[in-house]
Specification:
single chain, alpha+beta, 5 domains, 46% helix
């Protein structure tokens, strides 16, 4: 056999070995992929079981995010609430406070507020249609809801409120009619007392905003620095002896006389301005984006060693507070969406840019490359390469993946979501097969490029 023939035979044998090895690799990959898929299905099943709707513990509810609660809820209707919540896959929890036999406080995640309110209102609407009218209804002013709800909670009267064109409907069980009548009488008495009370805002000789209260019934007068609503209520209780309901009603009456800017601070939970070391209100620049016209930016510092804080308030009274110690872009963007109720990207960007300019938002990282390489490694993970930077992320935790992409590459939330979406659409099997084929092809190319040694001919 000539040298050329020997070399050709060697290459042919080697190619067959590579081909058979490739088939084995493919079979192993198929088994691995099937096993991974089965594990993913089991994991998904377990996760759904943990997150199922219906009654859960308060601690478990906290794992789902921010928690809120309802007004006093009739414990006789709790079973129906649980049944409907379970059907809609909404987790809820409830506690019965000491001394309250009729009502429960129902807790749920903030994101489920609309759904829970819809369930409660639907339960009451059905009871209103029942023969004999097991439910009763009374109309009150919107400004009266907070005080009246507080009174009902104190006296263990389950109620439900629904807004309508002619006011707010307070719905209650017919068995509580006497208590509701007493509550209305009591509440009307408080309102009548406040008719002889003058509560207003004024500026002193130094231009500082102050609150003046004159109680005509008790012939008492009180002047205090402008403060939050919560602090005013506390002062009215402690210094004028007002009940909680009366203090709330008086504070609400003052709120109706305020400007939007005053109301934004008044309804906040921050301390009063006079206790602050530094306060700069309504900060504006000549080149401000026109989208920021309805937003007010203010900087404040409570004590010398405290961090500076930035408040952003809109014309409706919604606000956020940003500390110079926490400049995380993703967290602040989430605050803007959740608390300022902003959804359009341009307005969010304008608010972020101004906050960044004022030193309260970190400067985004600049990454010098044009494209990202996205590859789904397993059913639950994927890898993103940008230049020399490589990150491996968990597909099961979208929020963490989004934050990691933003922090590492300085990309926008929308861009991060698109990358995660592309990774989710990829097939693990196809990726593995592509890599295996590439390795096989590389091996084959190496054999093809190998120089053949010619045998001697005689």
């Amino acid at each position: 056999m000539h040298g050329d023939d020997v070399a050709s035979a060697g290459v042919e044998v080697t190619t067959k070995v590579v081909s058979q090895t490739t088939e084995i690799i493919m079979d192993i990959l198929k088994l691995a992929i099937e096993r991974e898929r089965e594990q993913a299905r089991l994991k998904k099943s377990d996760k759904q079981q943990v997150l199922s709707g219906g009654e859960v513990t308060y601690r478990k509810l906290q794992e789902g995010g921010e928690v809120t609660s309802t007004y006093p809820f009739d414990k006789n209707d709790y079973g129906e609430l649980i049944k409907r919540a379970k059907k809609m896959n909404i987790p809820v929890a409830a506690i019965q406070e000491n001394g309250k036999e009729n009502s429960l406080t129902v807790f749920f995640n903030v994101r489920d507020t609309e759904a829970v309110n819809a369930i409660i209102q639907d339960i009451h609407n059905e009871k209103l249609k029942e023969p004999g009218q097991a439910e009763r209804m009374v109309t009150i002013e919107k400004e009266q809801v907070e005080g009246f709800q507080m009174y009902c909670s104190e006296h263990d009267i389950p109620v439900c409120f629904m807004e309508s064109k002619d006011g707010v409907k307070c719905i209650y069980g017919s068995e509580y009619e006497k208590q509701i009548n007493a509550a209305m009488e009591k509440y009307n008495g408080v309102s009548a007392e406040l008719n002889n009370t003058d509560i207003s805002l004024f500026k002193d000789e130094k231009g500082k905003l102050k609150i003046k209260i004159y109680d005509g019934n008790e012939q008492k007068q009180l002047t205090m620095n402008f403060s939050t609503k919560a602090r005013l209520e506390r002062v009215l209780r402690e210094r004028l002896g007002y009940s909680e309901v009366k203090a709330v009603e008086a504070a609400n009456r003052l709120a109706s006389t305020m400007t939007d800017e005053q109301l934004g601070y008044y309804l906040s939970g921050s301390r009063q301005m006079e206790q602050m070391v530094r306060y700069e209100k309504d900060i504006r620049y000549d080149d401000d984006n026109v989208l920021l016209d309805k937003y007010s930016f203010a900087k404040m510092q409570f004590q010398e060693n405290d961090p500076m804080r930035l408040t952003v308030t809109d014309e409706r009274g919604h606000f956020i507070v940003i500390s110079e110690k926490n400049k995380d872009r993703a967290a602040i963007e989430q605050e803007i969406k959740q608390h300022l109720k902003v959804t359009d990207t341009e307005t969010i960007t304008a608010i972020m840019d101004k906050a960044e300019r004022m030193g309260f938002v970190e400067v985004p990282k600049q990454v010098l490359f044009k494209e990202y390489q996205i590859e789904r490694d397993t059913q639950s993970s994927f890898t993103v390469r940008g230049g020399s930077t490589i990150v491996r992320l968990d597909l099961g935790d979208r929020e963490a993946a989004r934050k990691r992409l933003r922090d590492t590459f300085g990309m926008s939330e929308a861009k991060a979501d698109r990358i995660i979406g592309k990774a989710q659409k990829q097939s693990v099997a196809n990726n593995l097969l592509t890599r295996a084929k590439a390795r096989v092809q590389e091996t084959a190319d190496t054999l093809k490029r190998k120089k053949r040694e010619r045998g001697s001919r005689k």
